[in-house]
Design goal:
The chain is an alpha+beta fold. The chain folds into 2 domains: 2-116, 3-Layer(aba) Sandwich (Aminopeptidase); 121-267, 3-Layer(aba) Sandwich (Aminopeptidase). It contains 8 helices and 13 strands. Strands 1, 2, 3, 4, 5, 6, 7, 8, 9, 10, 11, 12 and 13 form a 13-stranded mixed sheet that branches. β4 (59-67), α3 (76-90) and β5 (94-99) form a beta-alpha-beta unit. The protein is globular. The structure holds coenzyme A. The site of coenzyme A (COA) has 18 residues, from β4, α3 and α4.
Length: 274
Amino acid sequence: MALHQRHLAGCVALSRSASWNQNEADWRLMLGFGRGWGISAPEGTICASTIALPYGADFAWIAMVLVLPEHRRLGYASRLLRGALAELEQENRVALLDATPEGRAVYVQEGFRDFWGFTRFSLSTAFLPKQEAKPLTSTHWSQVLALDALAFGGDREPVLRNLAARQPSAALVAERNGQVVGFVLAREGREAMQVGPLVARDAGMARKLLAAALGAVPGPVYVDIADHAGPLQAWALNQGFVVQRPFTRMAHGPRAYAPGDASLVYCPTGPELG
Ligand SMILES: CC(C)(COP(=O)(O)OP(=O)(O)OC[C@H]1O[C@@H](n2cnc3c(N)ncnc32)[C@H](O)[C@@H]1OP(=O)(O)O)[C@@H](O)C(=O)NCCC(=O)NCCS
């Protein structure tokens, strides 16, 4: 079955069942510009989901591969995934995703392979001290989108604009000689605030932007930090963050590739959004 906005309550229940952070606004965003598929039990409960988010012409993001605990190991995730992959194949789009260790077991069997990893860090309180950074304003958008396209490798304007509107106090930029050389966004979630994406031209700038965004939101807070940004991960641990879980960025099939320039990505947006 196709998932639509009328299924939002069941979708949020799926997030809750896995202690995931997506709230109704996240599902509304994803079902608004992506395509969702679900499996429902006879009494109507949505027991499995998968979403494909088109990010430009070349690839799509597979998100929200979730199955209620009592319906697992019945082939539901692989069935929905295969349906999504078949549609993307027809559109000539490569499928990408960020996998949990549990999900990775399914994806490897379906022909995905690993590219790079990141780690989720959490802080149970608000982050102190405060750090100043420039607010992202309408004059910055074209440069923010260009920098994100370079780093992420696809067009995800609806996502970035949605996050900036939801948490404007944490939508921040770094500039050098009038050019945007870094930006960060955040969003509220079901369990915690999440900071990301964070894209920057260098590590020092990334740390300042991260500190500023963390200081602009209430706790608890999650942030996903790329494993290739080791010093930023060490900084987070020094600030009292704890490691929650690892994720692996994967791509599907013979044309599997990692779009963009990962060296500019300090914090992914979160596994559901890339
Ligand atoms: C990961 C998840 C979506 C799998 O859903 P599922 O419907 O149980 O998966 P399937 O039944 O299609 O599994 C297909 C195969 O993948 C492998 N697999 C699935 N879950 C596995 C697990 N937890 N550990 C090891 N292998 C697993 C098995 O080989 C399985 O075949 P088998 O049951 O015949 O041995 C589900 O466990 C879940 O919702 N987990 C929490 C959320 C999550 O991590 N989602 C992944 C996001 S990236």
